[in-house]
Amino acid sequence: MDDGSNDARMIPPADDRPADDFDADERPAARAAPKHRRTSSSSSVAGSGEKRPRAAPRSDFRIAEQPGFVLHSYPYRETSLIIDVFSRDFGRVALVAKGAKRPHSALRGVLQTFQPLGLSWSGKGEVRTLTTAEWVGGMLPLAGDALLCGFYVNELLVKFCAREDAHPALFNHYVLTLSRLAHDEPAVQVLRSFERVLLRETGYAMNLTRTVTRQPVVAEGRYVFDPDRGVGEASDDLPAPWPVISGQTLIDMERDDYTSPQTAAQSKTLMRFLLNHYLGGTPLATRQILIDLQKL
């Protein structure tokens, strides 16, 4: 997996055609990125005759060799795919993979979920054109229960991450999560850890060590987590759906330690409650499958 040392390269495209103007028979991988910016032949520095480079609009830039993963894909026209990718430096991006469904397409076997890729794209608008995709390697494939957990993680990213909103720390934790799942670490521990990082990185910070009145959480205490305020002491007049959590569970969650059976059970209940609240009650398809299988 790319260690972050190779930053994304932003290079102007070879021509100004929008993504949809390319012929359907053109293979995306065949278009190489130009090495230099184009300059205007008519613009010059006053009095010097020296040509001044014309800055290309950001929407026209080509992104090259960006580390990323396919989160989801669906058919587009007869031979193409729309893929939703999670990239390190640009967040979620929608790309059209032209000709990817053709039997001999170079992209056909590459655009798989849970595999690290080097992605290049260009174009304007909400959906850009994928130009190349290369398998980076270095990660074990997911199988069985780990595969279902991976789809759950992908669905969370789609639900919580806005388009083209970069989350490099979340990207790095996503890579770690896939690796832990592939090595058969306990799903309960891996998923709780990812959910907490997801909420923190998308603006739903969770301070579990102090109450809303700035009192320290104690292991013997009984608490609730108000989604809009934070940790509070449990009382008899709580809203019905709010789960009561022990102080020890909150302390363990802050330490990212889910080995205790009580912490594993209560943290699962708490995270279900919080995710449902922040999603406005929108159900997660993969969560229901995992709940049915008693794996989440």
TrEMBL record:
Family annotation (SUPFAM superfamilies): ArfGap/RecO-like zinc finger, Nucleic acid-binding proteins
Signal peptide start and end residues: none
One cellular-component annotation, GO: bacterial nucleoid
Keyword DNA damage: yes
Recorded superkingdom: Bacteria
Annotated segments matching region Disordered: 1-59
Listed Pfam families: RecO_C, RecO_N
Biased composition (Basic and acidic residues): 14-29, 49-59
Keyword Translocase (UniProt): no
Any single GO BP term: double-strand break repair
Domain called DNA replication/recombination mediator RecO N-terminal: residue spans: 65-137
InterPro entries tied to this protein: ARFGAP/RecO, DNA_rep/recomb_RecO_N, NA-bd_OB-fold, RecO, RecO_C
Keywords: DNA damage, DNA recombination, DNA repair
UniProt function note: Involved in DNA repair and RecF pathway recombination.
Family label: Belongs to the RecO family.
The protein, known as: DNA repair protein RecO
Organism in which the protein naturally occurs: Caballeronia novacaledonica
